Amino acid sequence: MAGKPRRSGVDLMYDVVIKGGKIVGSPFGTIEGDIGIAGECIAAIGSGLKGKHVVDASGKLVLPGAIDAHVHMELPVSGTRSSDDFASGTKAAACGGVTTVIDFTVGDRDSTLPEDIESRLDEAEKSYIDYTFHAEIIGWHRSRSWEILKAMQMGVTSFKFFTAYSSSGRRTDRGALFDAFETIGDLGALAIVHAEDEEIIDHIVSSLDPSEIGDMSTLAKARPPLCEALAVGDVIYLAERANTKVHIVHLSSALGLEAFKRARSFYSNATAETCPQYLLLTKEVYEGMEGHLYSASPALRTSMDAQALWEGISSGDISLIATDHCPFTREQKSWKNNFLDLPYGLPGVETSLPLFFSEGVLKRGISLEVMVKLFAENPARIYGLFPRKGALQIGSDADITILDPNQEWTISSNNLHMNTDFSPYEGMTIKGKVCTTLSRGEVIYDNGLFKAREGRGKFLGRSI
């Protein structure tokens, strides 16, 4: 990793020094001190450090840059595309303290995984921060085994499957999923799965009358917690038989969490994430005049489900927080009296970290150290980026977020950078705001000013 500290007289002179902050996630625990940066990397942690450029972090929290391991930039869906491209989406991410994103290739039955990766690399060249991909597998066949090996040689080591969405061709049935898991397990890669039971969803939807299809609140009925729980159990039991690592994305319900815990008692090599929307929003929003703007899959649940997920975080059963960031404008989600025809997805990459600090740390007593694990260390470890990312260690990339724990602000799409005119947290006042973000030692966001150049982000090739 580049960069050694320079000497100025008898003192070491660093390129950048972050001075006087409360450092969370260092090898020394949580300490008050300085971080010295040389080139793109952390070179020292201590006190009294000197630098050519000094960032005053007095009274602030100094955190490893957050990793959002589940985002969808310019994703084609329901006849449109998610409204953030890699430029606007990663700019918003940086303003929210996120320094690495993991997006997805756009799979197709008729393309190879290496072709999908190359196509996505072209789109991601506009990124302001570092990025990597999960490879989406649509249509399993034996030649995919060679493609997985080639994808791994290209630096992509996690592979996405769906147990739902037959109508769009994305579903992988259990037999094919088991075959795929065996290949992934043999190669030491990671399977990640959107787990909802297609048969339950289809059964419910087929029984709906037209008035229910024209009612946004039916979304929660059509994709109930039962469908999540059944699929979560199936997926982990298949992974155990195939001896492959598996990660469950966007866990949303108490029943799904219980299924995860039961299955993991038989097979420990399984992890799960949840998202802010499942911790903070409930299905009652579907009943409002703008309920259609909250369309998401999985659907939003009850307050009891949210409480169970908070408890899953505290118990350590949920390993990381991701956003499933997939924004659309109000026009893209205009209501046409059919909840089935809406694009599903919510914006969140810019608000996730401050929301969790306010609602999780300040209101629910979750420790700063646990927050750092959820947002930085654990995603870095699960996805093969640690300790380059997700850590405040000497030699790690100087991806650093500085958060003001005392600043109160009100969330509005008007004061955010995501390319949408809607926030699901509109009007919510929270405490804690990202004030400065560094990516590989460069201050790219500072007190409302965005300073980075488009395209500076790097692709992060991973190995197992």
TrEMBL record:
Name the record gives this protein = D-hydantoinase
Gene Ontology CC: cytosol
Tell me which cofactor or cofactors this protein depends on: Zn(2+)
Q: Which residues carry this modification: N6-carboxylysine?
A: K160
Segments forming domain Amidohydrolase-related: 61-441
Q: Name one GO molecular function term.
A: metal ion binding
Q: What would be the name of the gene that encodes this protein?
A: hydA
For this protein, the record's InterPro entries field holds: Amidohydro-rel, Hydantoinase/dihydroPyrase, Metal-dep_hydrolase_composite, Metal_Hydrolase, Metallo-dep_Hydrolases_sf
Alphabetized, the UniProt keywords read: Hydrolase, Metal-binding, Phosphoprotein
